[in-house]
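Subgroup meeting minutes
Present: P.N., E.W., G.H.
Scribe: E.W.

1. P.N. recapped why we're keeping a running log of single-chain structure predictions: easier to compare across weeks, and new members can see raw inputs and outputs side by side.
2. G.H. added today's entry (872 aa).
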Amino acid sequence: MLLETMAVKLLLIVVLRRIWCQSQRNLMPLPTIRIGFGLVPGDPFWVQVREAVQQRADTLGLELIPLTVPRTALSDDTYLRFLDDLKAQEIGALISHVVDDSLMLAILGAGTPIICSEDTALIHPLLVSVHGLERAAIMAADYIAERLTGRGTVLVVGACDDPVLTATLRHRGFNEVATKYSGLRRINVGSGWRYEEVLEQLLEESDVWLTQVGGKIDAIFGLSDPLALAGRDACTQLGVIDEHTVVVGINGDPLAIAAIEAGAMAATIETSPQQLGFNLAEFARLAALGEPLPDHFPYTFELVTATNVGQVAARKLVFIADLPSRLVDVNRRLEEQRLVQLETSLELNQRIGMILDQDELLDSMSEIIGARYAYDRVHFYLWSNSDRMLQRMERSDAAGAAEVIPLSASGPLVHALLNNQAVYIPDAMNSHRYPPDPRWPDVRSRVVLPVRVGGRILGLLDLHSHQRVVRNQAELDSLQTLANELGAAMRNAQLYAQALQARAQAVHAGLLRSRLLAHISHQLRTPLNVILGYCQAALATPNPYGEPLPAELLQDLSYIEHSGADLERMINDLLELAQAETGALQIYPEYVELYPLLLGVFESAQRIYGENQNVRWRLQAPTSLPSVYVDPVRLRNVLMNLLSNAARHTEHGQIVLGAECSDAQTHVWVQDTGCGIAAETLAQIRQGGILGPTLSSNGAEHHFGLGLTIAHYLLQLHRGELQIESEPGQGATCHLFLPHPLMDEELDADSSTAMHRPNSKRRHTLQSQQFADKIRKFVADHYATQLTREQIAAELGVTPAYVSRVFRRHFGSSLWDYVNSYRVARACDLLTHGDLTITEVAFTVGFNDPAYFSRVFRKETGKSPLAYRTSN
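Output recorded in log:
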């Protein structure tokens, strides 16, 4: 009831105090003294001390600079890095916990005063520390001894083996009083400072220390309030205390005050966090101004029991009134830093994620980091593990040789590489670790970051600023994240450049091979024509010699003529292959009636290759086939090559030349019942043809010649497609797909032919329009799926190229532009009339990447999805 009555009064006090503080701040000049602030909020007591320092610093006009002070003995480099940070931050004095003596001496030796928040035995003109903590333990021991009338078992909790002076002083003060009472028995337990840690330890080791207790515990003394509460809770679970057990702690934490008010704790020795914090701030100001410092200053202690807990609680409530607002402000600043990091990371990903040119990548990287983090120069060093050196990457048009740094050199670059960690130099002119770099005399601040890809170092990112730039750890972590993202982009650019180089080399080698084939083909024609000319003349009747030749000689000459014809056909194939690979192979299309062409090819092939009586030849094609727009000579060569291959590899069964017509294309096929083609051979054929012999499943050697490769090239020139189906021992089928003629561009190219075929033109134009409508309907039915051009082509029975060509001719846009527009239109409906999230809308209309959906949506509507939903 007392606390409730006081709460109303306290609200008024808090409001008046805030008004007064604000008026004082308005009257004060801007902060000019910078104080390093290294107190860690490890428990409620230190949270209050930090708040007290902050309040007093505001009053005194001090600017507190948060610093992470190394608390244990670390490497010399860590100390030097911290000293550099102090120098760069222009710290006038440092408020800190007790740290390693060597570090404290290094800080003091560098001229920075230290105001220590804990007891220390170190004495120095620039050092002042709090002193007299054993008095709190003496007050606690006196209280316990009085409550127990000098007799009973006392459990002393915490820091039994901690060498820190504050722990030693508390044990010393308690023991100094306890030894005066022979009836007080002390049992020391616990070796930490945190509530959770000590509670778990007491419960786990209870079998050990309970044997020393031998009965009921009369009092619990904790070296801090959390330790006293940990001892109380552990003993309660173990059943060795009751409501009469005296529980006493040190510090006066809010939880201890609440426990005393509830009757769950007897007392605490309040070590005034407010007075301690005020003293730390005031001595820091004196030190920064060069005023002489005392060696020590005292604590302020007060015994808190049930009789005065209300007044102490009210005083603490007033004291920490500003704490929630201050914590909110700290969280807000942290969120702002994270937001800057996310925005920079997003911009970096958007701008360099798809850049594959190294020059453009370097320019974009320098622009983004320079704009976001105020660096004047950005360098990227590529690490060569084989050469053991760093080489600075420059634009390809840069003059002069690139800078090379061997691993044997010294400095921040090599240090960052060898240790795989960032090097931050806040002030290059006054660095304790690195002397000024003669190559960059204008650099004031510098950050060197390892650029990692897949766990290994790709290089280093070197950032220069002409001004002193102070970075906290969160900003350095953000820069390291950006460096790693840059590494992934740089690696992609490297792989792309290597691929381009390999491609150029392959193209060059292919051109040399094709030119060689063309040259050899031309050179072979002359002697071959001479051989064929003499053979044909000798076989003629009458022959030019006027003498009858023996039958055996005529048969031999006939063999020579057939072999010469085969050789001439192979030379022609080589020449066509060379022309195809160099892009010189051309076709001369015209309108051709398909059935007569097929009939002529079939009869010629049957006459030439149909000597095997065990193979039946069939022509399977309707006489009403439409005309096709092809090069008749080239198409005849393709069919003859396919039929020749079929005849060569078929010993029994049949060979079929077939054809049929659909709405979209003409389908011609050559089918045989021969040995078939193995799967691996078929894969090689699809990749570019077979130029040598292959083995069938039964081990027989088969030659496919160059016919399949040339057929593939010729079908591409006709905007058609060649597909091969085969299984070993089951024969093979070669499918030729030819698009229907009378495309607009073909009509323009041959207007005279089109004028003679008006009915054919109208018929094919109507068929083409109907086919385009089928494509549009298919998109409307399947837009929400992972739609592909190949899927549409397979569904409609045409080639993917034909789908794109027909759609663009009839609708004036590419197929994918239409698909995206259709999806965006559906998304607009969902955003206007539905409650799905933007990500759900993206997946619903067929996009598998919400970011890509947003870009397409903005391009189509001029607004982002969120802005569109808001405006509608």
